[in-house]
Amino acid sequence: MLKAVHDAGYINPTPIQEKSIPLVLMGRDLMGCAQTGTGKTAAFLLSIITYDLENPTLGSRPPGTPFSLIIAPTRELVMQIASDAESLITYTDIQVATLVGGIDYEKQKTKLKKPVDIVVATPGRLLDFARNNIVDLSQVEIMIIDEADRMLSMGFIPDVKAIVSRTPRKENR
User: Fold this and answer.
1) Phi first, then psi: what are they for 5, rounded to 5°?
2) What is the mean pLDDT of the chain?
3) pLDDT at 172
4) b (16+ CB within 10 A) / e for 1-32
């Protein structure tokens, strides 16, 4: 991961990264608020990837069963987060899947037939896959709700609650 961080041009952590990453790696819940462009996405991606590399899954999870879930309100944001994640996992065996509306359902479904570590999704498409038993959220250890304020203002509260109810109890994630 350090090589990928170097390749991405990161030299020094931003204030949000410096303050949040150690807390997350200690297993603490965190709510972060900072302006656009301050490194929030990198902060949670670096935390997720570090956690996964330092705490490998014993055995294997079934296909379509991620250890980490990132939900975001728009397809564009999901695709940007997934792109950032892909660049940071270049030298690892971590697998990312994106689930968004407006993109071929079958292609996304095919990706979930293989082991996947991180799912980045919009709430509606994620619930569709979960309700059809294509993605299983029962082993999620880390859950990120990106742009939660925007998601709530867009009316995603019921979807977010339905997603959270499919993950392990708070004390187990």
Assistant:
1) -65, -45
2) 91
3) 74
4) beebbeeeebeebbebbeebbeebeeeeeeeb
